[in-house]
Amino acid sequence: MKSGARVLGIAASDADRTSTIAGAVVRIDRVVDGVTLGTISVGGRDATASVQSVIDRADRPDVAAVLIAGIAPAWFNVIDLHALDAPGPVISVSFEASPGLDTAIEREFEGSAREWRLATYRRQPERHAVSVDGETLYVRSVDASPDRARVIVRETTPEGGRPEPLRVARLIARAAAERRRSEDS
């Protein structure tokens, strides 16, 4: 990626009924170039729409890629990566090895809630392991080959095992969620 390239990182915080979602536009040289916030219903079905809202509010046609922390934030509120309209490839990054979410979804949900989650989850691209600085990340991508997604993830991870746009977005989401919790109490 070129030195001035920008990537939109999107991450959510944990909460009771709603989860704060943050989008951080970060240049490849680690300069933060924009922030936007939203919410996701915990255990709901609005994650895809909430992520799309963050992308839209960021309003950055110069973004080279969108990185999303995970595929099912806010207690299995599954994101449909194929449904997102982004200015570049959409790449979901997870940080732990797992056999997948099927068993957990089947255990936690019933009826249409279960079926919707399983159908949405099973439509998503296959995960591929990516080694970065001795860490293994797991990547799904839309509009980027696994090789291209691997390059984007590595180029946005200057140190440690978390791409900088996701690290920044997670910090912002946590701070915003903490502020909301303190205002509610």
Describe the structure in your own words.
With about 180 residues, the protein is an alpha/beta fold. It has one domain (about 5-180): 2-Layer Sandwich (archaeoglobus fulgidus dsm 4304 fold). Helix content is about 35%, strand content about 30%. It is built from six helices and seven strands, in the order E-E-E-H-E-H-E-H-H-E-E-H-H. The protein has helices at about 45-60, 75, 100-110, 110-125, 145-155, 165-185; strands spanning about 5-10, 20-25, 30-40, 65-70, 90-95, 130, 135-140. A seven-stranded mixed β-sheet has the order 3-2-1-4-5-7-6, with helices on both faces. Helix 3 (about 100-110) packs antiparallel against helix 4 (about 110-125). The radius of gyration is 16 Å and the shape is globular. The mean pLDDT is about 95. This is UPF0215 protein HARCEL1_06070. It comes from Halococcoides cellulosivorans. Pfam families: Endo_dU. InterPro entries: Endo_dU (IPR002802).
Characterize this entry briefly.
This protein is an alpha/beta fold and 185 residues long. It has 6 helices and 7 strands. The longest helix is centred in the C-terminal third of the chain and has 21 residues, at 164-184.
